[in-house]
Amino acid sequence: MHRCKAADALLSQMVMENDYEIIIISEQYKKKERGTWLEDSSSTAAIWLPPGSNGATVSNGNGNGFVWAKWEIFTVISCYLTPSDSTQAFQEKLDNIKDTARTIEGQLIIAGDLNARAVEWGMPNTDSRGKRILEMAARLGLIVLSEETTPDITLSTERMAGSINNWKVLEDYTGSDHQYISFMIDTGRIAHQLSKYSGTRKWNISKLDTSKLIAAIDEQNPSSDPSLIARKPVEHTMRNITKACKKSMPKATHSKRKAAVYWWTENIAALRRTCLRLRRSYTRSRRRGAAPQEAEQYKAAKKELKHAIDDSKKKKWEDINRNPWGLGYKIVMKKLGARAKLPDVTAAKMEHIVTAEIPQFTLEELQVATGKLKANKSPARTGSQQKSSK
């Protein structure tokens, strides 16, 4: 995110629009207050689980330049290795990541901006840092998932790679000098793989006799049509499951309306689209040679978008000051995780609550309260002070 304020704001909107559940971040702007936030010891790499993210982590940890979170069936390590590190410092951080990865059991994803070049992730050449990363990947049994030219690397265990789909570099305007990457994790397939290879299995799959298996299935499902041997029991089972689901639960409904952060407006959405269009134009022009005009237009558009976001936030907070039980109350309740209803208070009743005098306590109430205090237990006095005060 290049520690960019605008990128931080646009990320929140992008997450809400697309229902992303795990956000792997390099060079974060600041800690997100909502959801679960984990970051490394130098605050340069983070993992963010926004509100509504499915599944809780079972453990987590961090080091210098990396942070990790473990779910039941896989672990994610988010990394950022600064380009200013010396070769020795870079190798030390990489060794720490490798040592941590070795202690984590199960399937693994390592992702982030490692500021390294390698042909394996689309670069024209492989530099020293790239070679060191590839060496680490080989030792850990990781493969490169990156399918397009990008400085941001995605590695995973080979079995995990089979459960990762739709890896792609997003075209959305991010406000950063990097484009975001998204991919889908098929947790059902991972769980199947785990059960298939777990130590508690009842059969030794390596000694499977395929011909005997087919014969046994044929005996249980006799049919003149071989294609129906497996199909019939599957169809029968699925029909029973469907009937049970219809009786026990309603169908899910999905709203087509996309969520938005509190300060989002149609104008800001239009400015984001303009930035995306001008960035593409600038990129194409730069490939052909110098592009001073396109660069200035793109720079001006980014500045306008940043100001629009700041102005919208300021205006919303001015509205909050005028109506404390409106948007401001809702934002605070969301951050607290509360789902309380707005209080039904009239303007006159609110005025009375604010201006009414609170009656002072009586001498009798004071004596009752002080009588409940234990002797020599005042936290504001030392032992010698307590003794001299008797």
Written account of the structure:
- It is a single chain.
- With 390 residues, the chain is an alpha+beta fold.
- Among the domains are: 189 residues, Endonuclease/exonuclease/phosphatase (Deoxyribonuclease I, Chain A), CATH 3.60.10.10; 73 residues, no CATH class.
- The protein is 46% helix and 15% strand.
- The strands form three sheets. The chain has a six-stranded mixed beta sheet. The protein has a three-stranded antiparallel beta sheet with strand order 1-3-2, with no helix packed on it.
Order of SSEs: HEEEEEEHEHEEHEEHHHHHHHHH
CATH fold naming of the domain at 5-193: Deoxyribonuclease I, Chain A
Given the C-alpha coordinates, what overall shape results?
extended
How large is the count of helical segments? 13
Indicate the radius of gyration in whole angstroms: 30 Å
**Major sheet attributes:** 6 strands, mixed
Mean pLDDT: 81
Q: Give the proportion of residues in helices.
A: 40-55%
Assembly state: single chain
- Level-2 CATH architecture of the domain at 5-193: 4-Layer Sandwich
Low-confidence parts, pLDDT < 50 over ≥5 residues?
A: 197-202, 379-390
> Strand share of the residues?
5-15%
The CATH homology group name of the domain at 5-193: Endonuclease/exonuclease/phosphatase
CATH class wording of the domain at 5-193: Alpha Beta
**N- to C-terminal distance:** 63 Å
